[in-house]
Specification:
Elements lengths: L6 E6 L5 H9 L3 E6 L4 E3 L4 E3 L2 H9 L3 E2 L7 H10 L3 E5 L7 H4 L6 E5 L11 H7 L4 E8 L8 E9 L6 H25 L31 H11 L5 E5 L2 E11 L11 E3 L4 E3 L5 E9 L5 E2 H7 L20
Parallel strand pairs: 1-2, 1-6, 2-5, 6-7
Antiparallel strand pairs: 3-4, 7-8, 8-9, 10-11, 11-14, 12-13, 13-14, 14-15
Helix pairs in contact: 1-2, 1-6, 5-7
Length: about 325
């Protein structure tokens, strides 16, 4: 079995997986098939849109399958006929059945965007930012049929910049993951990597984001609010309501002003776009996007709406106020 040309089937869907596919291809491995999620309707027009991994596979001239159900017998038979040395998975989006995981002799290898066993689940990058972590990383693991519980193979850590959000942190981790995948495959082929069981007592979970995860809760501390914004930007976005209209908060920083006498959500200083948060803390808004308008500096939004000191953002339960 040549280390320079393993036979691999790649499973991936989201943008995080694209560097892994590209690096696998560039390393000279034989990619027998790329398996991705089906095209889905996107945007206001609900036009069918291909996932990033499919677009990358088309660009590289690789064969692709988009099964609705990865558990289908037809897909299993196809994989048996391909007889891959390894399966490589990254941000695929479905749980792969054990019968498929058992096929390749070098194993089913998953590239996961956290330092396992922390942040098992669909949204590890988002949830680690929301939790205010200072360090994260990527883990390759030998997959099993449950969610992110397989044995650890390799890992690589990365310090999180205070300015990172999902949009900036994801590509950094994706590049680390791509390198780690190649190193893992070579190590398994050489027999130099040993499987290390995860310590489940240390596990934390990272469920997929829900729309309400992006709702700003002004009673939270300023640091929690800023971390929430980082964890949902650019998608699904952090949302607040002011005068009954939606305002997306794109960027915000901690502010030094502390006062327990101010109500959460109260605009303290319109000139500097400072808003009171929970526990006497405060947030300085940097970039916002009012409903139906372009993104702009928070000061521009405040001046344009002639917002005065003492006005407050609506509470989440006021978010259904009729908009006019």
């Amino acid at each position: 079995m040549s280390l320079s040309k393993l036979k691999v089937v790649f499973f991936g869907t989201a943008e995080f997986a694209v560097p892994s596919l590209e690096r696998l291809h560039g390393a000279g491995h034989e990619i027998l098939m790329v398996v991705s999620q089906p095209d889905k309707p996107q945007g206001r027009g609900r036009h069918l849109t291909s996932p990033p991994v499919k677009l990358a596979a088309d660009r590289l001239g690789l064969p692709i399958l988009q099964p609705r159900r990865v558990r289908s017998e037809s897909l299993l038979e196809k994989m048996r006929s391909l007889a891959p040395d390894a399966l490589a998975l990254a941000a695929f989006g479905q749980i792969v059945p054990q019968a498929l995981l058992d096929l390749p002799p070098l194993g089913p290898i998953n590239v996961h965007g956290s330092l396992l066993p922390k942040y098992r689940g669909a949204a590890p990058i988002q949830r680690c930012l929301m939790a205010g972590e200072l360090v994260t990383g990527v883990t390759t693991m030998w997959m099993d049929a449950t969610l992110d519980t397989g044995d650890i193979l390799l890992s690589s850590s990365l310090e999180i910049s205070p300015d990172d959000n999902v949009g900036t942190l994801t590509p950094k981790l994706a590049e680390i993951g791509a390198d780690l995948l190649i190193e893992t495959l070579q190590g398994l082929a050489e027999g130099t990597i040993s499987r290390q069981p995860q310590d489940s007592s240390l596990a934390t979970h990272a469920p997929a984001l829900l729309p309400e995860d992006g709702t700003i809760r002004w009673e939270e501390s300023a640091s929690a609010i800023c971390n929430r914004i980082r964890g949902v930007t650019p998608k699904p976005g952090a949302t607040a309501y002011f005068r009954g209209k939606r305002v997306k908060i794109i960027d915000a920083h901690l502010d030094a002003l502390v006062s327990s006498e101010l109500a959460p959500g109260e605009i303290i200083n319109p000139k500097l776009a400072i808003v009171a948060a929970g526990g006497g803390s405060s947030v300085r808004l940097v970039t916002v996007q009012p409903e139906g308008k372009r993104a702009m500096l928070a000061g521009e939004w405040i001046r344009g709406n002639r917002i005065m000191p003492g006005e407050r953002f609506d509470s989440p339960d006021q978010s259904q106020v009729p908009q006019g």
